[in-house]
Specification:
Blueprint lengths: L1 H11 L3 H16 L5 H14 L2 H12 L12 E5 L8 E2 L2 E2 L4 H17 L3 E4 L10 H11 L7 E4 L5 H14 L5 E6 L3 H10 L5 E5 L20 H16 L2
Parallel strand pairs: 1-4, 1-6, 4-5, 6-7
Antiparallel strand pairs: 2-3
Helix pairs in contact: 1-2, 2-3, 4-9, 7-8, 8-9
Length: 246
C-alpha cells in the first residue's frame, strides 16, 4: 500500500504535478481538436522523461564507472576537491559545515589518511556570498578527527574545477609533490581528471560519493517523476566536460 501511495504522490507533487496538468491539458486540446496538443503533449513527455529517476541513472552511470577504485592507492599527497559548504551553521567545534558531496569526500579523505598517513591538500574556496570557505572548514573538521595540522595543506581560493587544478598545481609544485591521489565524487571525476591533465598534473583517481548503484533495477518508482537532481547533475558534468575540451 505504501508503494501505491508513493506512486500517486509522485504525480500530485511537483514536478509530477506539472506532468499531470500538462497531460490533462493535452487531453482537453485533443478533444477540442486543437492542434496545440502537439506542443503541450511534447512538453509533457519531455518533462516526464527528464524527471524520471531512470533517466538520471542512465545518464550518470557512465560518469561514475569511468574510473575504478584502486586496490592500493599510490601517491605522495591526498588531494580533495571541495563540493559546497554552508556559512555560519553550527558545528561541533566551530561554524560552517561541508555539504553532502563534500562531506562524503572528506570522509573518504580521512579514511585514506588513516591508511597512508600522507599529507592532505584541501582545495576549495568561497563559491557564493552565502557559502562557507570549503578548504578551511574541511581543515577544521580533519583536525577534530585527529589529523595533525602540519599534515594539512589548504588552497582556499578556487571556485571551479578549473581553478581547483590551477591553484592546486601551485601548492603541489611549491612542496615538490609529484603524484596526487585525487578524491572527488565519482560523477565529477572525469571532469576533474581532464582539468588536472590540462595543467600538467597526472592524478590517481580515487572516486567516492556515488549517487547510483552499479546494478540497474526496474520497478514502478523508476517511472515516477522526481526532483531530477541526478539528471541535472549528470547534464552539468557533460556540459562541463565539453567546455573543458576548449
Amino acid at each position: 500500500m505504501e508503494y501505491i501511495i508513493k506512486f500517486i504522490y509522485g504525480f500530485l507533487l511537483p514536478p509530477g504535478l506539472i506532468v499531470t496538468l500538462l497531460m490533462l491539458l493535452t487531453i482537453g486540446l485533443v478533444r477540442r481538436r486543437n492542434k496545440a496538443w502537439r506542443w503541450t503533449g511534447g512538453l509533457c513527455i519531455f518533462i516526464y522523461v527528464l524527471c524520471l529517476p531512470l533517466t538520471g541513472i542512465l545518464l550518470i552511470h557512465p560518469l561514475e564507472t569511468r574510473y575504478t577504485l584502486p586496490a592500493q592507492p599510490h601517491g605522495d599527497v591526498i588531494l580533495m576537491l571541495g563540493g559546497g559548504a554552508t556559512l555560519g551553521t553550527p558545528d561541533m567545534n566551530g561554524r560552517g559545515q561541508l555539504s553532502g558531496d563534500a562531506a562524503n569526500r572528506l570522509l573518504t579523505t580521512y579514511r585514506l589518511y588513516k591508511g597512508t598517513h600522507l599529507p592532505v591538500l584541501l582545495s576549495g574556496g568561497k563559491v557564493y556570498p552565502d557559502s562557507g570557505v570549503e578548504a578551511r572548514i574541511g581543515r577544521r573538521q580533519l583536525i577534530a578527527l585527529g589529523v595533525p595540522p602540519n599534515k594539512i595543506l589548504i588552497e582556499d581560493k578556487s571556485i571551479t574545477t578549473r581553478t581547483n587544478a590551477i591553484n592546486s598545481k601551485k601548492i603541489i609544485d611549491a612542496h615538490h609533490l609529484k603524484q596526487p591521489i585525487l578524491v572527488t565524487s565519482a560523477f565529477h571525476m572525469p571532469r576533474a581528471v581532464l582539468n588536472f591533465d590540462k595543467v600538467g598534473i597526472h592524478v590517481q583517481p580515487y572516486p567516492t560519493d556515488y549517487l547510483v548503484s552499479r546494478q540497474l533495477a526496474l520497478y514502478p518508482g523508476q517511472f515516477v517523476p522526481s526532483s531530477g537532481d541526478v539528471t541535472f547533475t549528470a547534464l552539468k558534468e557533460y556540459v562541463g566536460l565539453l567546455a573543458s575540451e576548449f
